[in-house]
């Protein structure tokens, strides 16, 4: 059976919607907001709405006679503006996620799902024939999504080493039953040119917010479980730092390699466990040791600076003062006065 390919880019341009009409062999209707087609590939409707600044929605309601490869094309990095595409897959039996960039081999998903993909990433889907194909896709600007509750967790997922850890730049979450009901209402709206704009915005933005809430909750649960998973390795990293308090510690990438973690995972979970960055924790322990030696040993400030691995005494004094609020010389002087 011959398959067809539909390539789409961002949906916030009329030209992209016209191109989609050409690729499906459909007719543009109702002020270029609806594509209606009935051809050898099948029949169906695709409607687009501009919900508000930075937020566009497109609803697909199709019945296909031929398999279709649906490709969401990556946008050039210089124009993505940290935006995303969010796909709400309402008929998982007929819509399969097949590829992310050059990575293939995805398993079939048999439940309704969201898939969030950065605009800088290419995602490939397979639309299967002889079944209803229903999905909703959103084009979300970086500005719009940054103002939504739950965004920080999303940002951490994509920015905090997802690629370094061998992950893929896609975030998938299951639809809850109430969210699925909301999606059904939106799909029913594809036939209503006079659908209430306020209701559409509330339903569309509600879908996105439900996804963000589920993703934030899932990321929090995953983080908690990973703390247990990485705890021993982070303790190993701490031991390496403590062994180097009187000398220059290994570079971060070397410590990560020594404990078999990526650098981003080491940084992230070290801070979650100890409440400080790796460097701040190391410096705190180093300055605590310097103060202990200063109070317990008959060494001069110069000798302690050298003992702690500083080539320049002035550098040691500067860091000591920032950490303890007073110079090592003043502590030494006060100690001698009280002797």
From TrEMBL:
Annotated keywords: DNA-binding, Transcription, Transcription regulation
SMART domains with a match to the protein in the record: HTH_ARAC
Single GO MF annotation: DNA-binding transcription factor activity
Annotated HTH araC/xylS-type domain residues: 235-334
Ranges that cross the membrane: none
Record's keyword annotation contains DNA-binding: yes
SUPFAM superfamilies linked: Homeodomain-like
InterPro entries linked to this entry: Homeodomain-like_sf (IPR009057), HTH_AraC (IPR018060), HTH_AraC-typ_CS (IPR018062), PchR_regulatory_protein (IPR053142)
PANTHER family: REGULATORY PROTEIN PCHR (PTHR47893)
Protein name, as recorded: HTH araC/xylS-type domain-containing protein
Organism listed in the record: Niastella yeongjuensis
């Amino acid at each position: 059976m011959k398959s067809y390919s539909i390539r789409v880019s961002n949906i916030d341009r009329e030209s992209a919607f016209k191109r989609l009409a050409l690729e499906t062999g459909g007719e543009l209707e109702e002020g270029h907001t609806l594509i209606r087609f009935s051809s050898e590939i099948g029949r169906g409707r695709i409607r687009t709405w501009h919900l508000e600044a930075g937020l566009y929605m497109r609803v697909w309601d199709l019945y296909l006679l031929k398999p279709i490869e649906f490709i969401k094309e990556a946008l050039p990095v210089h124009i993505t503006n940290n935006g995303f595409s969010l796909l709400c897959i309402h008929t998982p039996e007929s819509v399969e996620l097949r590829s992310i960039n050059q990575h293939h081999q995805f398993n079939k998903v048999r439940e309704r799902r969201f898939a969030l993909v950065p605009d800088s990433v290419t995602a490939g889907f397979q639309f299967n024939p002889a079944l209803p194909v229903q999905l909703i896709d959103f084009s979300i600007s970086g500005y719009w999504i940054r103002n939504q509750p739950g965004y920080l967790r999303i940002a951490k997922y994509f920015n905090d080493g997802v690629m370094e850890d061998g992950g893929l730049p896609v975030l998938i979450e299951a639809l809850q039953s109430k969210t699925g009901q909301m999606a059904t209402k939106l799909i029913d709206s594809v036939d209503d040119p006079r659908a209430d704009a306020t209701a559409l915005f509330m339903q569309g933005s509600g879908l996105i917010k439900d996804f963000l809430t589920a993703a934030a909750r899932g990321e929090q649960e995953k983080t908690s479980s990973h703390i247990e998973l990485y705890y021993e390795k982070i303790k190993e990293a701490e031991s390496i730092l403590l062994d180097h308090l009187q000398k220059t510690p290994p570079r971060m990438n070397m410590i990560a390699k020594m404990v078999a973690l990526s650098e981003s995972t080491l940084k992230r979970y070290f801070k979650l466990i100890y409440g400080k960055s790796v460097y701040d924790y190391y410096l705190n322990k180093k300055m605590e040791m310097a103060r202990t030696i200063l109070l317990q040993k008959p060494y001069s400030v110069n000798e302690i600076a050298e003992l702690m691995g500083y080539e320049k005494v002035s550098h040691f004094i500067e860091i000591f003062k920032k950490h303890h609020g007073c110079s090592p010389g003043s502590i030494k002087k006060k100690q001698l006065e009280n002797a």
